[in-house]
Amino acid sequence: MTRYTIVGAGPVGALMALMLADQGQRVRLIERRPDPRLAVPERGRSINLALAARGMLALEQAGLMQRIAPALIAMRGRMLHETDGALQFLRYGQHEREVIHAVSRERLNLLLIEAAALCPLIELQFDSRCTDVDPQGLSLTWQDERSARPVTEPFEVLLGADGAGSAVRAALETRGYTSSREQELEHDYKELAVASVSGRRARYAFEPHALHIWPRGGYMLIALPNTDASFTATVFLPRHGEPGFDHLHSADAVLNLFDSQFADAARAIPDLAEQFATHPQSRLGTLSCERWQVEGRVLLLGDAAHAIVPFHGQGLNCGFEDCRELAALLRAPAAHEGAARAAAFQRFELERKPNTAAIAAMALENYIEMRELVRSPQFARRQRLAAALERRFPQRFIPRYSMVMFHAEIPYAEAQRRGAAQERVLEALMADAHVHALEDASAAWVEALLDQAGL
């Protein structure tokens, strides 16, 4: 039996601990934050999560879906809010199963920690901040957040699942084992709470089974539903400029922006100015890491290795897919030992890197789609053509968004490659002004386009 130490008890770290314990391995899970079963949840920085096929497959394989299911709300598509108050619903897919699920980060994390607490092979340790990792000396230094007392202890195998600001990754960089690069967006975000509408029975301010988007070109507001009939809204704005966060230092400026651009949301948030003033303004960026592992001793996974922007709803799903694929590589009992474990870690890095790079690029592209392109009549036409191609050629054409969100068996890099090929087909169809529906194009021409694209 190998003893694993996991730094970071967020969703990825907690799920990885449960998967390793399911393989009979002992796990020590260390987290700098207080125990979520006892502490008041942090507010204002979460960006509610979207759970899709890849994440759900990992939870199913860990036997956790039944525990998690009550915390999920199905979102069947995007609800676009225009400046004049008009609403437009754009369905995600063509089949009933093609939905994504909103879930509170806090609730999901709590459910996973509760599951870990029931496992005799998992030891939970909170209020413990990692300050150093020495892969050669196999030592971990952590500081008790209550007493500030530093402790240095040995470890056998250490996994860094401590997020984009990973202390484990920082220690590896300091010792020259890896390097990382962060590409920051020029946009920041701020979360706002949309309370339920009071009455005889609490109800949602907006349609609950949709991801709500207020697309405004260079910026946007989104809102995801919670199980208590509230929404978590997130406004994404440039850091500088008009409109930008640096122009919103007064209550009047905030209210003027929301009244003019997000009027229905403003009406649903009576304490908007107060929330805007007190909730933190947070950064967005993509992080890439040169090397994820050190000789079978230390491994980074999730955001610690490959943080991405949230605009494809895949950060959680990608991290959970990390857990599933690493667990598969370690499934054989001998895989947890010495050279076999080192080989598994190397293979994990080699196989995951192209896929995490692909979803990072696609997430950035999806921001432009969400805040700007969805408003265009040409976007709706393109979506109709893509849906029709999928219906007529289901083995050859699946829209890229669907491949990413609903087809866990298709690697991200393959979805990106096929998506680029499919885009050439759509561009050809869109270039013909007479083609408003797929029926307007000859079957022979469409098949020729698919052939030329290698689909």
Bulk shape = globular
Number of domains: 3
The CATH C-level name of the largest domain is: Alpha Beta
Return the CATH architecture of the largest domain: 3-Layer(bba) Sandwich
Give me the Rg, rounded. 23 Å
Low-confidence stretches: none
CATH fold field value of the largest domain:
FAD/NAD(P)-binding domain
Q: Number of helical runs?
A: 15
Number of strands: 19
Largest β-sheet summary:
7 strands, mixed
CATH superfamily placement of the largest domain:
FAD/NAD(P)-binding domain
Given helix and strand content, the structural type is: alpha/beta
Largest sheet strand order:
6-5-14-15-16-13-17
Strand percentage = 15-25%
What percent of the residues sit in helical stretches (DSSP H or I)? 25-40%
> What's the pLDDT, averaged over the residues?
94
Distance between the termini: 47 Å
Can you describe this structure in just a few lines?
The chain is 39% helix and 23% strand.
Describe the structure.
With 455 residues, the protein is an alpha/beta fold. The chain has three domains: 3-71 and 104-182 and 284-366, 3-Layer(bba) Sandwich (FAD/NAD(P)-binding domain); 185-283; 376-452, no CATH class. 41% of the residues are buried. The N and C termini lie far apart (47 Å). Helix 1 runs parallel beside helix 4 (105-117), helix 1 (11-22) packs parallel to helix 10 (315-329) and helix 11 runs parallel beside helix 14 (412-431). The strands form four sheets. Strands 6-5-14-15-16-13-17 form a seven-stranded mixed β-sheet. A hairpin with a 5-residue loop joins strand 5 (77-81) and strand 6 (87-91). The mean pLDDT is 94. It is globular and about 70 Å long. The chain is built from 15 helices and 19 strands.
